[in-house]
Design brief:
Strand order of the largest sheet: 1-11-10-7-3-4
Shape: globular
Number of strands: 11
Mean pLDDT: 86
Largest sheet: 6 strands, antiparallel
Low-confidence stretches: none
């Protein structure tokens, strides 16, 4: 299922990818969530959650973090508790960024150069969306989901697969903007 669903409470975003071939730099992908406030829903995020950080109010949790893509199934999992977010939080954009190889000094890989990439967004046991990054092969980062709160306080979901070129910092500044 892809599209819009309203009345969401707690969602899970999962990411998978294949490990890099032996002797090559690791494939390191990361889930990133940006929370936007009512005062500027398209501007700078009021919270940015990714590897090595967490949501101060505990509403966004990175449950599983992989640096290599090794393992079975989904390698990274993030939980977003929309129903617990403060009323001034009106928009959450979730994306995926590919970390540069060599600790940030090596070349940047693209989705087209990493095998087995995919994502799943679900609430409980119901899948809201599932896909891959084949539509953005030259991108180094991509948004995958947008959650918005309406005037009644209900959260809705929209699939938002959009590719970006640039490093992780540029992506986190641009991911919530109008494109």
């Amino acid at each position: 299922m892809n599209g819009v669903r309203k009345g969401l409470a707690k969602v899970e975003v999962a990411l998978r990818w294949d490990p890099s071939p032996a002797g090559t730099p690791v494939n390191d992908l990361d889930i990133v969530a940006a929370v936007y406030g009512a005062a500027d829903p398209q501007g700078a995020p009021v919270q940015l959650v990714h590897f090595g950080s967490r949501s101060p109010d505990g509403t966004i949790t990175l449950n599983r973090d992989s640096h290599t893509g090794q393992g079975f199934g989904f390698d990274e999992v993030m939980t977003v508790e929309l129903q617990r977010m403060p009323p001034e939080s009106v928009r959450v954009v979730v994306g995926v960024v590919i970390q540069p190889t060599g600790g940030g000094t090596g070349p940047v890989k693209t989705f087209g150069g990493i095998g087995g990439t995919g994502f799943r967004i679900r609430e409980g046991h119901a899948d809201l969306a599932e896909g891959d990054f084949s539509g953005v092969p030259g991108a180094t980062a991509a948004t995958v989901a947008e959650f918005t709160r309406d005037g009644s306080g209900a959260w809705s979901f929209g699939l938002r697969l959009e590719g970006f070129e640039g490093g992780p910092e540029e992506f986190t500044r641009a991911m919530g903007g109008v494109r």
